[in-house]
Amino acid sequence: MADKLKKVAKAHTRYYLEDGTLVPGATTVTGLLNKPALVKWANNLGLQGIDSTKYVDKAASIGTLIHALVEAHITGKQADLTEYSPLEVEMAQNGFYKYLDWEKQHKVEPIFNEKPFVSEKYKYGGTLDFYCKVDGKYTLVDFKSGKGIFNEHFLQVSSYANLLKENKHKVEQIMILNIGRNEDEPFQHREIQPATFKKYFDMFKALLKVYYIKKDLEWK
Fold first, then answer.
1. SS (H, E, C) the chain
2. pTM for this one?
3. Staple partner for 138: which of 32, 70, 170, 173, CB 3.0–4.6 Å?
4. CATH code for the structural domain at 2-8+26-217
């Protein structure tokens, strides 16, 4: 399983400023925020006699494969499915078909995907899932797989939108597509309005300040 995930998952990217300074990734920064929904979910699994760690590993594998299938579709490449079980492939393909159903309802023009950026102004980095035109508007699209779309997802994409803008890319729409892995996880499409985006990015900047204070204090 570990080799499989290494093959298709995004590598842990390290982000550097122009002067060579190492800066945190957006996911590291948003990870400072407490996630009560995740705790409740893990507790519910425990009450059902399910090992949440093993469940997460399996779900992560399927979610990673969905992401790989979508990425292969966007780039016109072929995803390598050889190391996955038939059940894993079937579940991932079901999620992928949900994305295709969404895509059929829009005009999607790819510009780039899986591209890292760094903010020299705020000193953080991030790798964007997909930047494209959707129905003629320059759009940041972030792919999720799981039970739903949560507040920390909005924090994350607000930081990605700032990375695009700071690096001279127009952003007219911000979308989160949650691609369910099974019948219990429906496809969800959420957009962030400009006024709401600003509030979430203000919160992200506050977390970024906390990150650097903790680092200065050497708080583990």
1. CHHHHHHHCCCCCCEECCCCCEECEHHHHHCCCCCHHHHHHHHHHHHCCCCHHHHHHHHHHHHHHHHHHHHHHHHCCCCCCCCCCHHHHHHHHHHHHHHHHHHHCCCEEEEEEEEEEEECCCCEEEEEEEEEEECCEEEEEEEECCCCCCHHHHHHHHHHHHHHHHCCCCCCEEEEEECCCCCCCCCEEEECCHHHHHHHHHHHHHHHHHHHHHHHHCCC
2. 0.81
3. 170
4. 3.90.320
